[in-house]
Design brief:
Distance between the termini: 41 Å
Strand order of the largest sheet: 1-2-3-4-5-6
Shape: globular
Order of helices and strands: EEEHEHHEEEEEEEEHEEHH
Strand content: 25-35%
Radius of gyration: 16 Å
Bound molecules: fe (ii) ion
Helix content: 10-25%
Low-confidence stretches: none
Structural class: alpha/beta
Number of helices: 6
Number of strands: 14
Mean pLDDT: 98
């Protein structure tokens, strides 16, 4: 599997390239900025871009969708109820194959209702749900701290400690981490009841 994290734009965003080098098929995740540079890298890897995945519908994650579609014919994959324009609507537990690389969809609302995480082999793209050392905000429209609790504690922390975490923004001390490291060191993931977590998220 080809997997590359690419810093893009002016809000410390990360886009991602996922690809199957044998079949020459690839996908871009959240290509909201610097589309030409991302497409050039895909070309250098020998990948034809067949999908765009959006972790969620905020503009700093979907802004390049149309440009990628026009230039490659890629199909846009997003949560089935996402308000943004998409070609393939997915839900929790679905899989999408990029060549022979299987991408598993994990629905993780909380930051916004249409948020998904993407698991490819041992790499988890966490969008704005989980950053290195921090979690996403829940005070924007559609945000919900109770849903955030379930997504973080029941879905992400249920995964094996060895799974690597790749966030949607470079907000931490380093660009990526693991589930185990976040479990041990991320102050937002300290053991809390749902009520305690809601209270914690409401604190300034
Ligand atoms: Fe966001």
């Amino acid at each position: 599997m080809i997997f590359k994290q690419v810093p893009v734009g002016t809000f410390q965003n990360f886009a991602y390239i996922i690809g199957d080098e044998k079949m020459g098929k690839g996908a871009l995740v959240d290509p909201a900025w610097e589309v030409d540079g991302l497409l050039k890298q895909c070309q250098e890897f020998g990948l034809k871009v067949v999908y765009v995945f959006n972790t969620h519908s905020h503009h700093d994650h979907i802004g390049g969708n149309e440009e990628v579609r026009e230039k490659t014919g890629a199909r846009v994959v997003a949560y089935k109820k996402a308000p943004s324009k998409k070609d393939v609507g997915v839900q929790d537990g679905d899989t999408v194959d990029v060549g022979n690389v299987r991408v598993k969809i994990i629905h993780t609302p909380g930051h916004c209702p249409d948020h998904i995480c993407l698991l490819a082999e041992n790499k988890l793209i966490t969008g704005d749900l989980l950053f290195v050392g921090e979690c996403g905000r829940t005070d924007l429209p559609g945000g919900d701290s109770a849903e955030m609790y379930d997504s973080l504690f029941k879905k992400i922390l249920a995964l094996n400690d060895s799974i690597e975490v790749y966030p949607g923004h470079d907000y931490g001390s380093k660009p990526s981490s693991t589930v185990g490291e976040e479990r041990r060191t991320n102050y937002t993931l300290k053991p809390r009841t749902r009520e305690e977590f809601i209270e914690f998220m409401s604190e300034p």
